[in-house]
Each structure stands twice: as structure tokens, then as C-alpha cells.
């Protein structure tokens, strides 16, 4: 009887902790005589692989074992690499699929990407040809939106949430979030010396296209103000508060951290470049825009620091390694039990398996009423009794 095969892939942005998931699944599989197959570059590995071409197969299909995963959990990133490929909306077919018929999936209306094709039938065919019994998909809301589609098409799949934005629905925590907050708070603490030495207003930009968890929690532990996408502030009031912070500080400086998608009344973040496979365009640096407004209104000097990519780089902290290992083992246990369509999660501070989020609902957002002080533009510190450890509930 042939061995059972588990496939695993990582999609979207990298975060620390991904390698710990890959290793935990591989090691557990070796104990049960399962084969674990890694797909390189996320969903691209299942759309671009040409199984009739040995070179293509060797590039995209990586047998995983104890030897080649033994030390991978000691560093960040993902040994399987990643991409933002969306098999349901492929702009360009790989050469070996040229001329094959796939259903169109975009016409450019309502924000959809024009002239795209859904190659899901090829993804399913590749999984079948490779003998994959179960697939583990690790990613954020975009990557997992396609996991939900495969689940609906009958593929046996288990999801694991990862994103430094912490905005995947149905879980209170995503791999990468703790390390991002640790990195951000450390960077801000270090840069206090420079901002204070020059007596300026320090503006820090972090990731958070749609949700402000990273900025909010960084501000919570750094005790500074923050702007999040979920709430548009009054610009004049914000500037007045920052100037008051600066004047009342013995070192004559002030700090604020902003999500990349943060806005104020009458202002929208400028987007540029071509939309990616999930319809997202790059956002112009909102911290630079705020710096310009502060200069125009008050003539105060600022220092702008873009922390974005630094927060997802390097080794995972304790929390992310703990959660990553646990989420990986939960996914493996779910496979042993024959389950599918579920995601490893933290709910009410406890580990659980939950349905893969419905992609139509979009990313999870900060609950402004309970977590953000809209009068002072900073986190809300009161009334935390009874909340789970990460101070929010899954939605």
C-alpha cells in the first residue's frame, strides 16, 4: 500500500515562525511513515509546475524529511519561499498551459482584475497526480481565500493563519504578530534617542492595509499615539495633541505609529502600481504625508521611519515559535482524524480548530469601540478583565 502524502505551502508575505510549522508537520509525518511534500512559492507551485518536465517538478515539488528540515525552525522566513499567486485569477498562463481552456474569472468591473483565468482544475489535477491526500495551506486572508475555494471544490485541506497584520477572521492570533510587535516596540525604543536628540516628532509607519492591529498593539506597549485604518481622525486635533505631547516632554519630542492604511478626515492614502493577484495596489507612505501636514500647520520638524519589512524579518520570538509549532501540530492531528475545511486558531485564548474563514467577509478589523480611544488617538487601557490574552476576540 502506498504511503499517504501531505502537501504543504506558504503564501503571501513571509513572517517568522513559518519554518517551525513546516518542521513540525514533517517530523510528525516521519513518525507515522507519511510523506510530506513542500510546494515552492505558494500557490504558484501548484499552477506553474509541469509534472512532465523533470526540471520544473524538481523546482516546485520538494520532498521534506527530518534531514532537510532539522534546523529550519532556527531562522525566520520560509524555506519553501512564497508568492502572491492566485490560481482563481491568473493573468498569464505558464507556457505548458498555453492553449488549454480555462474559465475566465475577471472582467475589470467592480474592482475585479481584468482578463484573468481560473486554473483551479489544473491545481486539482496536479494534487491528484502527485497523490496528495491532504494539503496544509499557511497564509493570510488572501492565501486562505483560495484555500476556502479548494475546500468548496472537495480538496482535503487544513489552513494555518499567518500574518503580522493579525487580521484573519475566526482566530485571535496569527503567526508573525508577536514578533512584529516586538520588533516595532524595540525599534521605537531605540529611535527615541535620535528623535529626542533632535527635538522632533517621530512618525513610524507599520504594515496594516485594512486593519490596525499592528499599530494599535505597538502603541499599547510603547505608550504612544497611533492611527489605524478603522478610524479617520481629525487632522488639526491630531497635530495639536502631538505638539502638546512634545511641549510637555522634558526632552521635547513626541511619537506616533501609523498603519499603512491609516487616514484622516478629507484624506485618502494614494495608491500606485498595478494591482496584485488579489486586487491590492501599493500604498504611498502615509507617514510622509502626515509629516508634510505637520510641517505645513506648525513648522515643526519630523523624523519619519518606515518599519514595515523589518518587522517580518529575522528569527521568531518565543510566542510566534510556540504558536507556530502548536498550529502545525494541530493541523497534523486534524489530518490524522480525517478532518478538512478547518483552520488552526486561538479562540477565547484557547487553541481550537475553526472553519476556514469566508473570503467574502474580508479581513478582520479592530473593534474601535472597545480598543481605540477615539478622543486621544491611542489604545484604550481600561476594562480588560475577562479578555483573552491578546485582548481581542475572534470574529
General description of the model:
- The model has no long low-confidence stretch (mean pLDDT 94).
- Strand 16 and strand 17 form a beta hairpin.
- The chain is globular, with a radius of gyration of 22 Å.
- 33% of the residues lie in helices and 18% in strands.
- It has 2 domains: 5-175 and 316-361, Rossmann fold; 178-313 and 367-379, Phosphofructokinase domain (Rossmann fold), CATH 3.40.50.460.
- The strands form 5 sheets. It has a 7-stranded mixed β-sheet with strand order 3-2-1-6-7-14-15, sandwiched between helices. The chain has a 4-stranded parallel β-sheet with strand order 9-10-8-13, sandwiched between helices. Strands 4-5 form a two-stranded antiparallel ribbon.
- 48% of the residues are buried.
- The chain has 12 helices and 17 strands.
- With 395 residues, it is an alpha/beta fold.
Record keyword descriptors for this entry.
395 residues; alpha/beta; Rossmann fold; 7-stranded mixed β-sheet
The run of helices and strands is EHEHHEHEEHEHEHEHEHEEEHEHEEHEE
Instruction: Output the radius of gyration.
Output: 22 Å
The name of the CATH topology of the largest domain is Rossmann fold
Number of strands: 17
Side-by-side strand order of the widest sheet: 3-2-1-6-7-14-15
Output the number of helix runs.
12
Largest sheet: 7 strands, mixed
Report strand %: 15-25%
